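Narrative summary of target 7.
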Amino acid sequence: MTLKKLIVGMLASVTLVGGAAQAAELSIVSGDTGNGLQFLQAQLEKFTAETGHTVTVVPMPSSTTDQFGQYRLWLAAGNTDIDVYTTDVIWAPQLAEHFVDLSAAAADVIGDHFPSIIESQTVNGQLVALPAYTDAPALFYRKDLLEKYGKEVPTTWTELRETATEIMEGERAENPDMWGFVFQGNAYEGLTCDALEWVKSYGGGQIVEADGTISINNEQAVAALEEAASWIGTIAPEGVLAYGEEESRGVWQLGNAVFMRNWPYAYALGEASDSAVAGKFDVAPLPAGEGPEARSAATLGGWNYAVSKYSEDQDAAIELAMFLTSAEIQKVRAIEQTNLPTIEALYDDAEIAEAAPIIPNWKEIFQNAVPRPSAPTQADYNETSSLFWSAVHNTLSGNGSAAENLEVLEADLQDLLQ
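Modeled conformation, tokenized:
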């Protein structure tokens, strides 16, 4: 018997007010970035006060790649110590067999969420995770510097490179640490997100299309990666090749970047009292590429809560997942964390609009959201993504040209998927 279950047994005689149910001791895993972990702890304290159940947070690395690897090990082993998993939007098809079907428990609230998000967490007719918030990245820009140099917000990557270069060079007389653009360039899932946006914005497809066609080896994708490679050491530091979300935000929030690609969570942190860029920035849709099919593209993200089939406290765990994805908690998330709700009505909430005015405005960015190819690749998505980000990282690092690396990637994906 695990220590956790032993404690639960000791608590068996402890009942909630009214004696209706016994208190449980639950565990939840989280790899939240920024101040997300503190936010989660605060909500769990509310949950305990309301239900009597106590919850232990098992911290995870912020890298989603590392998280997924650990999840897969635990679930394959039937680990009973973890009751609730915090899951990326792309993981449902890969981990569904290990999670409880929440369709019945959530029947009264499913219709409140965006249908596409519920669909993303439904596998073979079973709702395997409840959405907590959705995500789509934006271009963060220094509005004070654009005004100073008489520049408009760039709408293409070419314009971004040109504007970033001019402002960066102008500002370095006063700030030698200034860079033009920071993003997520490390070899992990975050680079898949960034690079998918570049490729899609040039009309280069979505790596693997919905019908299973491997589409990545094309001229538009080559052009997109050649453009991105040109940023390294010019408008972006060479160190960006090791940046995740937090490293990018660190440079940005110190006032050392003109532009940043990041997720909504970085907005509230950037406006904090200790931020060098508070009141000096805004967000816009990510730039488009070049060519007839060019468009702005933002990788669809988002996080959900799933209940493990191996949990020995499934009812209490379902109660926790329902609580953390409720309209009440989503509203607090939107106000305090600038996380995008999955409950459609909250986009018209006056208190959210007043406290976080970017939330209603993020609808335009969300409408440009592009899914990663987890649906057509199913259980092979993780390896598909790894092959893609490795090819992109090699290109950014100067290890082979974009054309060479995408040709190899196509062959590797054919071996994997076909």
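The chain has 18 helices and 13 strands.
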